[in-house]
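Internal ticket - ligand job 353, magnesium ion:
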Amino acid sequence: MIEVKVPGKLYIAGEYAVVNPGNKAVLISVDKFITIKLKKSKHKGSVKSYSNIRMIWSRQDDQIVVDQKDDRFEYIFSAMDIAEKYILQKGYSLDFYDIEVTSDLESQDGIKYGLGSSAAIVVAVIKSILEYYKVEYSKMDLFKLSAIASIKLNPNGSCGDIASAVYNGLIKYTSFDREKILKRLKTETLKDIVESDWDSLEIENISLNNEYDFIIGWTKSPASSINLVNKAKNNISKNIKFYKDFLHESNKCVDEFVKGYIKSSFETVKHSLEKNRELLRQYAENYNVLIERDNLFDLVEIAKKFGLASKTSGAGGGDCGIAISYKGFDVKSLEKEWKENKITKLDLSIHEG
Ligand code: PMV
Ligand code: MG
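stdout (structure tokens):
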């Protein structure tokens, strides 16, 4: 049996800008996981996930076919499809297998934390299949295959979540042109695409600085990043001048954050997140999306009152916010005040991989 664990993620800076190819974001991966168990089966395969629902699959002309339809499984089957096509192009023949997915990326009541479960599932499925067939692969190969499986379903996502799930720790991610890759898929083999360079794509691991802690506050209201990103995207053409400046300034925040973090300059880290927060506020106002909703605003204001660097994480509208503290900070007092404002501090640490 193959067992694979892939961590969840959180955005630290660069959200929305990174959706545009060639722009940057910073992410961390956290020690909550999607776990996949994969074992060989005969004649037909199965996928068990989501409250133990079991889907049976088989193949027709090397194409996976599933009897029932359930949208929650589409990322899993997209990942299986891409992994199998790649394996075939590498000259292997296919077996049947049973996959079981378990997740720590939602609460006991089944509410998502916003830790990137779809991305982690895609990476975990592809990784488990590559390992089952004992295919040699690099992190970059795994990223590219997972990104392809993901953009086929959501071409507007930046794939920063996929990069974090593959590279772990703290990363600086520069996005690639998804439209170009989707176009190439029509005429080129997956193997050729994976083996080629993807122009602006860059993924860099940054060494962890143990002087700083990432503190995560959860609002308990789940948000749909896809809807928020799509809504803003439709409004971008209404103010291109702002958008260009936004991209430029957002990249500057990402670079400033990384510089401050590496050099242990708390003031720089704090300034970069404050600047990024202000940019996201303007972005939300210009393109009519609600980022700092309700208690997300309180989350950031309370953390700031304690002298921390803080902002929303990801698309906003719910999910989580982050705060960065320095050695010796009394986290209990922040936790108490967050709690009084209906914000739960999640018990998470960075997963280095
Ligand atoms: O809300 P999250 O953690 O899924 O983050 C979304 C980040 C965006 O930049 C808004 C979208 C993306 O795909 O990068
Ligand atoms: Mg989110």
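Auto-summary: The two ends are 21 Å apart (CA to CA). DSSP finds eleven helices and twelve strands in the chain.
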